[in-house]
Amino acid sequence: MAGATTAGRAHAPSRSLRHLTISASPGQLALALGIAVFLALFLVIPVGTVIYVAFTEKGTGAFTLVNFLDFARTDLFIRSFWNSVYVSAMSVVVASIFALPLAYITTRFEFRGAMLIQTLGFLPLIMPPFVGAVAMLLLFGRNGTVNLLLNDWFGFRIPFMEGLNGVIFVQAVHYFPFILINLSAALRNIDRSMEEAAQNLGSSGFRLFRRIVFPLAMPGYIAGASLVFVKVFDDLATPLLLNVKDMLAPQAYLRVTSIGIADPMGYVISVVLICMSILAMWISARAMRGKDYATVQRGGGGLSKRRMRPWESAVAYGAVLLILLLVLAPHIGLLLLSFATIWSFSPLPDAYTLAHYGRVFGESFVYVKNTLVYASIAGLIDVVLGTAIAYLVLRTRLVGREWLDWAATAALAIPGVVLGIGYLRTFYGVQLPDGTPLATLWITIVLALAIRRLPYALRACYAALQQISVSLEEAAENLGATKVRTVRRIVLPLMAGGILAGFVTSFATAAVELSATLMLVQSNADAPLAYGLYVFMQSPAGRGPGAALGVIAVLLVALCTFASHLIIEKSQKAKAAGR
Amino acid sequence: MNQPFPVASSGANAIDVDIRNVDLSYGANHVLKGINLHIRPGEFFAFLGPSGCGKTTLLRLIAGFNHADGGEVLVGGRNVSHLPPWKRDVGMVFQSYALWPHMTVRRNVAFGLEERKVPKAEIDRRVAAALELVGLAHLADRRPSQLSGGQQQRVAVARTIAIEPKVLLLDEPLSNLDAKMRVQVRRELRDLQQRLGLTTIFVTHDQEEANTICDRIAVMNDGVVQQVGTPMELYEKPANLFVANFLGTANIVPGRVVSEGGARFFDIEGGVRLPIPAHVALSEGAKLVFRPQHASLGKGGADDVLLPGTIVHSEFLGSTLRYGVKVGAAEVSIDTPFQSGEALYQPGSAVELGLSLRSALWLAS
Predict the structure, then answer these.
(1) Does the global pTM surpass 0.90?
(2) Would you say domain B249-364 falls under CATH 2.60.120.810?
(3) A interface residues, B as partner, C-beta within 8 Å
(4) Residue ranges of domains in chain B
């Protein structure tokens, strides 16, 4: 790694050499090496193994493309591939239909409750999509609430949840906040003068929107849309739970779990998944390049907000209410289900009970405990690594420090199912002294979660450190503090808010993660909440307790998200007061 | 450059702008209070005042981005008060330039013409002419982010004049440029305005900018037009203390105008009395106003009034020396030309101050 970077900096060999000797203390060097080893062991090698297996012949280890030919010749895989592409693309379309009106109405008009909408818009994110899937079946399925009522009143049904439709609907409802958040931010970042200049030159109404506002908001939209595409493409649990098997991620999982970890097809599919992730991110990066369109001036406001006419207001409130009802449907359905005795072939449950909660608190509490333990450790690993990498990148001149950043961020492009397969393959051969394979230990689940969430925690820590002026540290050193003591007494306290935010983000998202863990969980006693939910939701009898567990999961994550929001706000206020 | 720009008909078609009794409040904040102004055809006119005085609000009101609570705006005799911005034909150059980052320079300049459904060939010709006029024809295919601040400013001007507006509005167009560029660009702006003969309104808080390029200035403060006049009129005959203070340095000496034995005198606190012309009105709280260069130390002119003073401090300003002189209880600034070798007054030395009463003013407080 170091060799590669020195080559990259060959234009100034003497300078980088001097920096290496002068600016990197032995402690920093050791820290960097430690991180590099961690990332190599738990990210680079497992993923490398997956790619290696996909390109080698089973048994001999010789390079071959036969596996990919097999993939291309198998109808099931090709159909799965196109199904995945179709579902992902349609999810983007449907999610856009939800997000566009909400973003537009709340940023462009004086709209009562704009804040509420933006907050409610986050809610779907804090629930695993497959949990919502069950509730959606009950509400929108063939014999769900909506279709029963439609059939009673008008004599027809709408196939919301049939086959791929169901996956698209559930995924769109779950992931539309990514588009909402990015698009709203992009719209808010357009300076008022952009619009006024166009008006001044004779433009107005829809033409103005099409020629000025829309192109300026485009990069934000593409960023959100590509994220939705990748997430849907990689998701494993939702299609499985809706009994849709001919999509790529489920196929990878099914190959490995039913035929075994030696079968190359699971690895080939993994490589395809990685390629599609990278492709989507590349397209998004290309669309964004040179288009930092944030045009808001200092002291200037965003787009001017217009007051709506009464009829516009009525239409807007109607649309917003309908969309909110739709995207919050999984939550509502889950809550009903968790209190329901029997809910089948009827618009609403027959009767209500607390028994499911009793059962969850009795026998299934191990899931909650496991989740708290796993997510906490994963979050801790993430902020320690994130802070260390941010410090090395921003505050030292260590050769190759950017590689740590890139490697950690690269985890974004690795689907959970791929990481899971990589861990199984890499660590199954590694045995502990008593003979148990490393891959079966619960700590592998934690490591997978930590690697998966590292990019998010890293960005939070990075941003926190970036906001601290170097002169604050120089002042401490000038007054006699060593580098280590400066970090401890100045840098860490000032970063605390950002680190905490990073921890909570990692914790909250790790708590509902399933795609990597589904591969790695070996026994029920080691299983986290999301796995327990998955098991419960597969049997009709388990749906009640599963829903109760789901409500607990949602509350848990909501609490954490709320806490992180409070912490960030408080630290920002403290900083503003100190200024 | 030698190709005549279509609009340049030497100002024969230029029109006037009439602002009548314009009133505007944001809630309890009364931003514009009964503004009346007449901007003549082809005139380069400035709204000058400190930040928050309402000058930008007034400009945006002419462009149609703010709406008056009362009064009206007439452009070329036509009341535009109820027209939306896109129907007003008043071109505005924004303080931030507001160039659209997703369009090239050429597309930016063509925008207004495209909105007016001008034929393609005509658009090409006029965009080329506008860019030629500001000297940026070679950068037409760049993006705004690839241009320097000065170039961006010129693109913003080209984009505005390409639509041949009836009036050109400039909102602090020089404030985002460095000091050197500012001097160059303001000359270019003046030059351009003269060639196009375009009625132009310029908003600034910088008196030097306004003085150097504008025909007339409206000094504004607190939502009220304090005075309208040419730069020289405002400097020599400020109507009130605000204008006197805002334009250049002014000595403002408080005192009383008294009458004694048929003659008028001005009593400065601290026992200094000077004879003054008989037309000055009697007042208990008057202000004597004069510029630092309208008084001298040591030798006064023939009709100067002599006052006793004490040097407090001195500042070397390059071409001039500025002395702080205590006269009675008041302290005034006196500029004397700097000549090398000439002896300087030391702080504490007593001097005679010669004041030219013809240049002095008496203002009510």
Answers:
(1) no
(2) no
(3) 191, 193-194, 196-204, 207, 211-212, 215-216, 218, 290-291, 293, 295, 297, 300
(4) 17-245, 249-364
